[in-house]
């Protein structure tokens, strides 16, 4: 009976992969911007960055998704539901990326930052050439965890109508009344993603250790 729904479940798994592949880079870019604001010498930028992180981290992902899905049309912006969910995931997990980057930056020896400033490097060059490359070593594992959480968070699509893995397996359960089989398949799908991400993270960590 599962074979008759294999196409739909595989399609849902593919959609989950696409959601993750689109949302994580968005979270990474937005998180970098917010992190730069948080460590900026300009006080209004620091305040804005902190407000963003505090507001988003203290809000459920579903609330962020609902605000985007219903708020954008009210503002006259019409985009497909898939991209609304991508935007919600990116906005939400950017706050966690920001804090990961900020923690990584704190791990860099302050003397190197002062030395970079002493030779006249502007703040932008200090961040891009001194802080971020070294901070990346401390960020690999946390960023991998965030990537896994993005994949798991994409299951929210089942609540808003995006045909991802959880929604397809739920539809399979409704048609066959086999909840254990249905959600065991979904669990295996997420497990595959998590194991793949964990493997890539280990490889990157090993390479970073060699470069040290």
TrEMBL record:
Does this entry carry the keyword RNA-binding? no
Membrane topology, record value:
Multi-pass membrane protein
Q: Where are its TM segments located?
A: 17-39, 51-72, 78-98, 143-160, 180-204
Stretches assigned to the ABC transmembrane type-1 domain? 13-201
Listed Gene3D superfamilies: MetI-like
Alphabetical list of PANTHER family matching this protein: AMINO-ACID ABC TRANSPORTER PERMEASE PROTEIN YHDX-RELATED, MEMBRANE COMPONENT OF AMINO ACID ABC TRANSPORTER
Q: Per its record, how is this protein called by name?
A: Amino acid ABC transporter permease
